[in-house]
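Working notes for the structural subgroup meeting. M.R. asked for a predicted model of this chain before we commit to crystallization trials. I am recording the input and output together here so anyone reviewing the notebook later can reproduce the run.

Input as submitted:
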Amino acid sequence: MTPSPSRPATSRRSLLTAALAAPAVAVGAPLLSAAPAAAETAEGCQVVVDWTPIALEPTVTPQTNQPPQARVVRIAGTDFLQLRGAVTCDFAADGRLGTLPATIRPPKTTRGVCPRNNSQGINAVRVEANTSGHLNVYGPQATNKVTWIQLDSFSSVLS
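Returned structure, recorded in token form:
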């Protein structure tokens, strides 16, 4: 599609690229105070479910001033699950981080990669959200424990 002065290029690919390039925190600040659009829009970004707290497992604690939260945004008709916040944990094996709010249940397992403490050259962990809303962490090992996870980079397609 060639952009014209009256119609900018807003293909799904260009919007998805822009959404993935901008961290959830940078995009989230102006949207926190914005009201969701009343009607479905074909272009732009619409908040479907606003930032809502994630229920953490007892062994996982939120970092100060960074409570783990989830939301759903729609960009060019595609829904994305976004996470933000940071947690302190002690994962020595795959385990459960927490549970998404009841208003957010992925229709299929969706996954993303999140930064973690850099240990032995490994600085990321896989986080998956399943249809029950459970957030699971994959990658920790007894010889390479995960002690914190930063969720701000998690953005994954829901539909």
